[in-house]
Specification:
Elements (H helix, E strand, L loop, with lengths): L1 E6 L5 E6 L28 E6 L10 H16 L1
Antiparallel strand pairs: 1-2, 1-3
Length: 79
């Protein structure tokens, strides 16, 4: 399953969300038939990444374990 994650300048995990939509450019304007779109957006000095994770991550309840697993997957994706 795909997750969108944001990292800061140091490469540390800042945010994560289920799904994978590319970050819109400032030139994009909503079309008249658009239903809208929500999601993460990288701020100044941050990077947006799309990573694959195992679906069982949704069964993890400890925030520290989720953070550790996402950080490990992000490291794998960068190689």
């Amino acid at each position: 399953m795909k997750l969108t994650v944001i990292t800061n300048k140091e490469g540390e995990l800042v945010a994560a969300a289920h799904g994978h939509h590319s970050q819109p450019t400032q030139a994009e304007e909503p079309s008249s038939g658009s239903t809208g779109r929500a999601g993460l957006r990288a701020g100044p000095g941050q990077q947006l990444h799309l990573i694959d994770v195992a679906e069982d991550i949704f069964h993890v309840t400890a925030p520290a374990e989720i953070h550790a697993r996402l950080t490990a997957e992000l490291r794998k994706a960068r190689k």
